[in-house]
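Contributing new records

If you add data, match the layout below exactly. Sequence lines come first and carry their own label; structure lines follow with theirs. Keep one chain per record. Anything else will be rejected by the validation script.
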Amino acid sequence: MQVYPNRFSLQDDSPLKPFYLIFGDEPQQKLECLERIRKTALQQGFDERQSLVVDNQFSWDSLIEATQTLSLFSNRQIIELELPTGKPGAEGSKVLSAIAQQVNPDVLLVIHGGKIGKDVQNTKWFKAVDKNAIYVPCYPLEGNALHQWLNQQMQLLGMQTSPQICQLLVDYCEGNLLAAKQEIQKLMLLYPNGDPTLEQVEQAVVDQSRFTVFHLIDVILSGDGQKTVKMLYRLESEGIEPNIILWALTREWQTLNGLLFDKQQGKNINWNQHRIWKNRQSLYQSALQRLSLENLQIIQTKLSEFDCAIKQSQILRPYVELCHLCLLFMPYPLDKLPLDYAV
């Protein structure tokens, strides 16, 4: 059964599932889910915890032994198995499928790792475990979901909520929920009454927003130029190589070009053919409404020029040029502005 983090709650007397699957690329939500399971399990007598990591030296025999052997000092135990890639391999799949068929009320197995896709969710081992499990996907929060999470955190810690303060925390901590929670905790230490002014919050918080190239692409597709510039600034400060962003922009140009060509030919878009999942289709639809084949031709020319120039080390400030390229996807009328690689 799938449950999103904001609806995943456990009380001390909540009946526990034999298995939990916690996957995603948002570390704060994953940590909160794991802590809820640990706390509830401890209250119910699972007073021993083992942590196993599936790496190059890992032996699946150790998991089999752990699930079948109880400690002399504990009647019940929780086993946390980290699957960094979400893929246990052939041997691991067999072991997990077998364990899923032998539910032990004295053993609680929590499997966690990075982001997984439908390919993993459709595997035999995942389906076998999921029959007696709760699956919690932990995705980065954006938009209303992020605002709701921040308001909830402020309320839990005794801080009065405010739309202006919430938006300020979004601007400073987007993509970094751990930093956002730490900032709220810091504000409660500075202002124990829980009612700081907007000016006081501005003075106290530090810009800790974190983004990835994938976040950047989604914002470009949505057409938010201001946020695109902010993300580029953060990616530059984090030392992300310009070539990585160039590769991502080129890939998106190819996808958009194919989609727009089909659209203008009167064909229905085959999202599966372009490997675009349902949760991202609205982003591409937004981009297709703004862009024409002429726009994409201009972008292709600029991408080609930038690629040649960066390979020849002609660009002193590549992120300025990348900003130019990204804004062409809005599209802003920048095509007449030359990319002066000599400057």
